């Protein structure tokens, strides 16, 4: 067996036909084809799943407008949400979602940036040993736990301090603040650590103080990364359903203030999805909410890309 | 196999009282943890001259240079005395920010900030409380002229500094340092990332600058040391072995280790 194999090889290598010799497939080229084939297959499957999901949500989401003939403006700007009676004004949920998202991001960002500066510039050792594990732990806690703590602690606290039922935007903001804080912090830490060391040295060598160096050089050059971190945090807040649902009160009405029960796109989806029948207006209306969520997450993604590009340009130019 | 040279056999010049000195170190030692990277450096730097520090890689040139403006704070332990205007600036009570304003530093790798050319220069001035717009403009022009960069960038001061060539970036870093109007300028291999033409430009700049500043430059390029410096110190394994006028160092080195290094038959 071996003998023949050997002879075969010998014969081949002795061939004077260079074209044949250089074109014939060997194990290496076959492995190449195989690797390529497998990875294309995987990519194909993923693309198929994503595309069908997009198509599914989109087609269901637009049914409200194409089949039930609800006008888009009514949907986006109407304030009356009673799908059973044919009213589907989604503005209260849209407002609710944006309100809790922005409020949580605005509150969380200063804390996150402060913590990140502490961890990278002020006390890198303690940062790495103490805070890093804490933050990683916080990222991993499931959202239902956050919601439960919100329900057991934050809602009664708000009820006690500001009155009302305690359910509402402010409680949701607080819970989301705690949830997005570790996300924003850890990404900000990464972007601060990525600032080239020589920027810091250059600044210090010019006689700038540590604070000036951090605020005018390090934060400045980490800005695209920090913005990205904030957007990721916002995307998480915008898409969070369970924890929000547990503390916001779930009333599909325009929020009058921060302490009255309200609802978000996600909380309305999770509360409503079990009670509707496929193909009816109430069900289609929920799909339309889902479509808004999808579009928003695409928007967040696009934003991150734009910022990354800008940041790169700034460094290359 | 590295040849063993005695650390006892050194030739380090001193200056008489008539020479005015920019800086001087006495018994300077630097430790990176347990690594004793600099032994007993006693060097004096005459005012308005260029002093070159030469020696093989790892011999402690950067370590020594970085000690002079306290850039080793938080990285290494530095003992001994660093005299500047009759003050020992190695004392912990000294204001390091003030020191770095008077003793500027330019690094091996051009490291302008990711800001505009103008902002790169204005940054430190602003950080020091200079706010007057006209004065800032004036300093920008003056320092860029001083660093021989003005003609090349005067029409594009708002362009990103990172769009400049390596040589231009390094001259911008020099401009940034001299905008602070320091006394002493420390340069750590400022030309090692530059092409010969940019190198010549930087060298011309330095020769011009020594009229106003005292300059200490680390270089691996012997020709460069010979071209620009008046004094030359040779470092070997964390020891200063020879410190003599540059002419002497290159034509008539005093001790075997320097002779071998200059001749290129080292180790
Ligand atoms: N940040 C640091 N931490 C620990 N050890 C260091 C550090 N910087 C330098 N050293 C050590 O100090 C010694 C001298 O290094 P130094 O950088 O001063 O050499 P150099 O003469 O500047 O070399 P080169 O010509 O390669 O720049 C080396 O043994 C090096 O390992
Ligand atoms: Mg060095």
Instruction: Give the overall shape of chain B, derived from the CA principal axes.
Output: globular
- Class from secondary-structure proportions of chain A: mainly alpha
Describe the global form of chain A.
flat
Which oligomeric form is depicted? heterodimer
Structural class of chain B: alpha/beta
Distance between termini of chain A? 64 Å
Strand order of the largest sheet of chain B: 1-11-10-4-9-8-7
CATH topology of the largest domain in chain A: MetI-like fold
Order of helices and strands of chain A: HHHHEEHHHHHHHHH
Strand content of chain A: under 5%
CATH class placement of the domain at 21-111 and 184-263 in chain B: Alpha Beta
Instruction: Assign a percent range to the helix content of chain A.
Output: over 70%
Number of helices of chain B: 10
CATH architecture of the domain at 21-111 and 184-263 in chain B: 3-Layer(aba) Sandwich
- The first-to-last residue Cα distance of chain B is 6 Å
Annotated CATH architecture of the largest domain in chain A = Orthogonal Bundle
Largest sheet of chain A: 2 strands, antiparallel
Q: Please give the CATH class of the largest domain in chain A.
A: Mainly Alpha
Account of the 3D structure:
Chain A contains 13 helices and two strands. With 317 residues, chain A is mainly α. Chain A has two domains: 19-61; 74-316, MetI-like fold, CATH 1.10.3720.10. In chain A, helix 5 packs antiparallel against helix 6, helix 6 crosses helix 8 (169-193) and helix 8 (169-193) packs antiparallel against helix 11. Chain B is α/β, with parallel strands linked by helices. Chain B has a domain at 21-111 and 184-263: P-loop containing nucleotide triphosphate hydrolases (Rossmann fold). Chain B is 34% helix and 26% strand. Chain B has a seven-stranded mixed sheet with strand order 1-11-10-4-9-8-7, sandwiched between helices. A four-stranded antiparallel sheet of chain B has the order 3-2-5-6, with helices on one face. The longest helix of chain B has 14 residues, at 133-146. Chain B is globular, with a radius of gyration of 19 Å. The mean pLDDT of chain B is 90. Chain A binds chain B through residues 196, 198-199, 201-209, 212, 216-217, 220-221, 314-317, and chain B through 69, 71, 97-101, 104-105, 107, 109, 111-115, 123-124, 127-128, 159-160, 162-163, 173, 176-177, 180. Magnesium ion (MG) binds next to helix 1 of chain B.
